Amino acid sequence: MNKRTYGKVCCVVNCKNTQYNTKNVHFYSFSMKPHKVEQREKWIKAVRRRNADGSLWQPNKDTKICSEHFIGNAKSEHPLSPCFLPTIFL
Predict the structure, then answer these.
(1) Radius of gyration over alpha carbons of the chain, in Å?
(2) Which of 27, 29, 44, 73 supports an S-S bond with 8, CB 3.0-4.6 Å?
(3) How many other β-carbons are positioned within 10 Å of the β-carbon of residue 16?
(4) Would you tell me how many other CB atoms lie within 10 Å of the CB of residue 49?
(5) Cα–Cα distance list, 72 to 24, 29, 49, 85, 88 (Å)
């Protein structure tokens, strides 16, 4: 996908949310910060996405996940919050 053409797009398989076709939806990046490695790894595991060759998918700096995958439609930075990880996948 061309970022300039599509803008923010949710990385979750079968989620069609983009910045252009949704309202009141936020898009969050997978943190690249060293102190957030554990949160990043948990998000990757929660998304349950694989590459075509079966290897574990890895997000890049432009990868986004939309707020519809978080309880309350928003992520939390607190590790004990139910909104710390994406848990809603239809």
Answers:
(1) 13
(2) 27
(3) 10
(4) 14
(5) 12, 18, 23, 12, 10
Q: What is the mean pLDDT of residues 21-39?
A: 95
CA distances from 78 to 18, 33, 51, 75 (A): 26, 16, 30, 9
Read off the pLDDT of residues 16-28 as tens digits, 9 standing for 90 and up: 999 999 999 999 9
- Listed residue (1, 16, 5, 20) closest to 60, CA to CA: 1
The Cα–Cα gap between 22 and 67 comes to 11
DSSP characters over 58-76: ---TT-EEEGGGSGGGS--
Per-residue pLDDT reduced to its tens digit, 1-21 = 444 556 899 999 999 999 999
